[in-house]
Amino acid sequence: MRPTPPRRGPARRAMIALVSTLGLAAASAALVALPASASAPPPPAGWTTVFSDDFNGPAGSGVDTANWQYTTGTSYPGGPANFGTGEVETMTSSTNNVALDGAGNLRITPQRDAAGNWTSGRVETKRSDFQPPAGGKLRIEARLQMPNVTGAAAKGYWPAFWALGAPFRGNWWNWPGIGELDIMENVQGLNNNWSTMHCGTSPGGPCNETTGIGGQKACDGATCQGGFHTYAVEWDRSGPTEQMRFSLDGVTFHTVSQNQVDATTWTNATNHGYFVILNVAMGGGFPGAYGGGPDSGTQPGHPLVVDYVTVQQAAGSGTTTPPTTPPSGNRDAYGTIQAESYDQQSGVVKETTTDSGGGQDLGSLANGDWALYRGVNFGTTAARQFSARVASGAAGGVSGLVEVRLDSRSSAPIGSFAVANTGGWQSWRTVPANISGVTGTHDVYLTFTSGQGADFVNVNWLGFGH
Question: What predicted TM-score, i.e. pTM, was given to this entire model?
Answer without folding.
Answer: 0.65
